[in-house]
Structure formats: structure tokens, C-alpha cells
User: Fold this.
Amino acid sequence: MAEIVLINPRFEVSYWGMEHALPLLGKRANVPVAALPLLAALTPGEHRITLLDENVTAINYDRLATADIVGLTGMTVQRVRMREILAELKARGHFTVVGGPWVSVQEDYFDDLADVIFVGEAEETWPEFLRDWQGGRQRRRYEQAAKTDMTKVPTPRFDLLNMDHYLFGSVQFSRGCPFQCEFCDIIVTFGRRPRLKTSTQILAELEALRAQKIEIAFIVDDNLIGNKKAIKLLLHDLIAYQQANGYPFDFFTEASLDLAEDEELMQLMVQANIISVFVGIESPNEKSLRETRKFQNVRPAGTLVERVHRIQEAGIEVWCGMILGFDNDDASIFEAQRAFLKEARIPTAMIGMLSAIPKTPLHARLAGEGRLDAADEPEFGTNVIPLQMSREELRDGYVQVMRDLYEPDAYFERLEELYLKKRIRYNDGVVKYWRRHPWHWLKSQVRNAVTAGVLYWRLMHGVTEARLRREYRRRLRRFLLARPDPNLLIFYLFKCFLHYHQYTMTQQMALGSSKVYNSF
Ligand code: B12
Ligand code: SF4
Assistant:
């Protein structure tokens, strides 16, 4: 029997981290990292396992004293903190193991601070390691020979986390993406063949989330629509579940832009109540898209703007990732990105400077060309040395684009264009359900009105800048007059919180009071 503690280290500030807004919302983290409750479910019953999310609870090293194995997960934005924690654990004589997205691509990063590392998926290697450890024959490195059979993945142990501290829950339907973007480490780690769970597994996960009172869940797939035929079947079951249970969940997810070419799929997603989708659009510069092998975003399937509008008009908001600094980008890319996002009416856009993630084809190419900055924390925010502009130009242009996009006027203009002028539908699946169940509608709207009141109070008491508070009040009033619906109002309030985080983050970068946070 082993006493095991698994830790998710503190995040540094990031676009999606919501760090500036979380305290206002009374939460400590955005989403519980999916790996921890999953690894707990994969741990044989004879062991005792504790999950510790440092974003929620501080690490008390004295209380870890009896742990036989301490495991860490983490992505790039946690790597420095991971090293600090590992150094402390080592100084105290602990046996340490590390897995997750960062060590999977940068295997030597922690050197001897990690006794064992796990590269990639661990559904098979984690139980295998525990058996080896019991026999005193564990190896230094574990990597699965074959990708995980998703139909055998157990229900994560959400019950081991205090879910009250998170904004959203997480659920995974599939792994893998069929595309071949040059910069992408996801396909390096998870492969290009989409692998799906069964409906039975997914509905069991949703029930486990419901038991924790989670109502909004992030479907954490690399690309939900990697296998369109299979996901459609699954969505039918999800819709039946939502309808049978009075639509207990709002979902958001990630998918590729070819979603716009499949009307049936978009409608199924709407009926399943997937309200927004994060799409890697990357660039309005077609040459850059070709350069990075993002062929699914290149015509003839329609322009980028047309395809984004098609998804929005189906009733799904598009969030996106954009990249600056491809070899085909010169200084005109900054204005091109601003203009594209305005025309595409995308309020929530994560912009980043191109980064070369270890093990990707981009990393290999740039290493060959001598265009990589080897520093762990590169001075200009990315390890890529751009081709058609200086490093300062790229960094300063990036910060300026972010700043311009999150100026309240620019942000709310994009938002109002979408929700007030275009009046895109929101929660259409639920609205249709409510029409058939008016009593349910009434109960939900009363509850939504109360929630909206609480959120408004939190926003007005949490935001310190009077100018921003005035702006939020003005925009919310305008919204309420045009679309007086408590359900939508909650969503719009959330957009204000999201804006507050992104605005604060970009202002701090622009004013030099924080470092430049890139998207990677
Ligand atoms: C969903 C998701 C999000 C969600 C949820 C994040 C969260 N807090 O959990 C959101 C949208 C919030 C998000 C945000 C960000 N994300 Co993100 N995200 C993902 C995504 C698509 C899936 C992650 C996931 O839940 N997978 C499911 C779980 C089960 O898989 P897993 O964590 O890999 O765990 C498995 C194995 O790795 C292993 N394992 C993991 N840990 C451990 C530990 C031990 C001890 C062992 C034995 C095994 C093990 O076992 C698990 C089972 O096989 C990945 C892409 C990907 N496929 O990895 C990117 C990814 C992890 N994100 C990434 C980044 C950069 C970010 C941001 C920094 C972006 C930004 N600038 O805002 C922020 C960070 C914000 C934050 N504070 O959370 C990068 C990380 C790059 C890297 N190699 O380190 C990835 C890989 C995407 C990419 N290539 O750009 N993200
Ligand atoms: S579409 Fe997204 S997940 Fe798929 S290869 Fe490209 S960047 Fe990676």
C-alpha cells in the first residue's frame, strides 16, 4: 500500500487563467485540471490517494511528510513553480514523479528533481508504475507503447476535489486531432487519430459532475469534431440526456474551423447546449496558414470571416486563438489581426506570439535554421526569432494588439455587434426545451434573475476603477433593454468579468507592471 499525493501547482497569470476575475467571482480556479481526478480513478484501491490543487489550497509540506509518492502535473505556465515544489520535496527526501503536458515535451526539464517522469498519456503506465514501485523495480521514464483505448477510461474522482472553488467542471469526450499544424504539440502527444469514449462513459462523468453541483462544463477535447461521424452519434445521446434531465449543463469546447461546413453537426451541438467553441484560426494571412500547414483554414471552403459567421449564426459563439510572427508575417499583420477580429465580431480572442514547443516540427525546423532562443524564459516572450521583423517589434506589436482589442470600446463593440445587432441565438437548445416546459422556464428564470443580481453586485464591488464600472453599467443597461432575459444577462455579466481579467492583464503588460505573458 502506498500513500500518494498528487499536486497541481499554482498557475502563473495567463489569458484563460482568469486570475484577475476569480477573486471577484468568489472562486479560486477556473477548471480543475482533468489529470488529477482521472489518475486517482486509475489508482488501484489498495493505495491511499490525496489530490492537492495549489490554486485552491496552499501546500503544507509538513502534512506531506508521510507520503510515499508525490506526483506533479503541469503545463508550461506552471513549470517554474513545479521546479520550486520539486526542489522542496527533494530537500525533504520525497520520492517524486512528474507527468503532464510540459514534461511530455521537455523531458529533461526537471533533471534529478523528478525520480520518474511520464511522457504522454498514462492510463496504462500509471498503474504499471505503481506495480513496479511496489516491487522496487520502477523505471526512470514511462511512455505508453500504444495510445490509450478511450473506451476503457474510468470516471474521474471529482469527489476528491473541492469543486465549490472552481468556476467550471471538465469532461473529456475524445483525444487526438486529424490535422497537422506545424506548431502543435497536441498531435505529438495525443496523435492524429481521434479516439472517443462511449456515451455510457460520458453520461457517467456528467452524473459525477452533477453530484458535485457543477452546471457549466468545459469539454476539454483537443478537437471535439476530429471524427465527425462518431461525435454526431455521441451528441444524439447527449441531447437525449440533456432533455431527460431538464438541460442540467451548459458546455463550451474546442473545435476546428471545418465545423462551419457541417450544418447538421452545428445543430447537434446547439441542441446539446454547447454554447461556445474555441477555434484555432491563427491568422488572416493565408500565406502564414499555408506555412504552418493549417490547411483546414484555407479556402475554398469560404473566407475565414464567412465561416466564423456561419458558426455564430447557427447559435454558437466563436472564441479563437490567433498567432503573430509566422515567417510570412511582416509588421502589417498587427493591423490585419485587429481588422479581422472586428469583422469576424469575435469578442474573446487569445492572441499569442508564435512559440516553438519542443518536439514539434516547428521546433525542429527553427532549430535547424538557428532561429531559437534557448533561454528558459526568453527576454522577448517567445523562443522564436521572427523572420520579417525584429524581436522588439513583434513583442511590442503583440502587446499593442492585445491592448487595443481589450479597450472597453473595442471589446463591447465586437460583443454588441454579435448579440445586439446580429442578435445571435443563445442557449437555443434550452430555449426550445423551455417552450415545452413553461414551469421549468419560470423556475429557471427566477433563479437566473437572483444569480444575475449577485453577479452584478460582485462586479460593482470588485472592480476598483470607476471608469470600468461605469462602462459595465452602461453596456449592461443597453443589453438589458435590447434583450431583457435573465439567462442572457448572466452570460453578459460573465463577459464583463472575462473582460476585466483580459483588460487588467493587457494593461499591466502595456504599462510594464507585469512581464509579457505569451499564450504558450
Ligand atoms: C482543456 C484545456 C485547457 C482548459 C482547462 C485547463 C485546466 N486548467 O485544466 C483551459 C481553456 C482553461 C486552458 C487554459 C490554458 N491552457 Co490549455 N489545454 C487544454 C487541453 C485542450 C486539454 C487539457 C486536458 O484537460 N486534457 C485531459 C487530461 C486528462 O489530459 P492530461 O492533462 O494531458 O493528462 C494525461 C497525461 O498527460 C498524464 N498526466 C498528466 N499529468 C500527470 C501527472 C502524473 C504524476 C502522471 C503519472 C501522469 C500525468 O495522465 C493523464 C491521462 O493520460 C490541452 C491540450 C492537450 N490535449 O493537452 C491544452 C494545453 C494543456 N493548454 C495549454 C496552454 C498553454 C494553456 C494556457 C496557458 C493558455 C493561455 N495562455 O491562456 C492556459 C492556462 C490557464 C489555466 N490556468 O488553466 C498547452 C500547454 C502546453 C504545454 N506543453 O505545456 C496545451 C497542451 C495546448 C497547447 N498546445 O497549446 N486549457
Ligand atoms: S487543429 Fe488544433 S489540435 Fe489540431 S493539429 Fe491544428 S493546432 Fe493541433
User: Anything to note?
Assistant: The chain has a mean pLDDT of 97. The radius of gyration is 23 Å. The chain is about 45% helix and 10% strand. The CA atoms of residues 46 and 180 lie 42 Å apart.
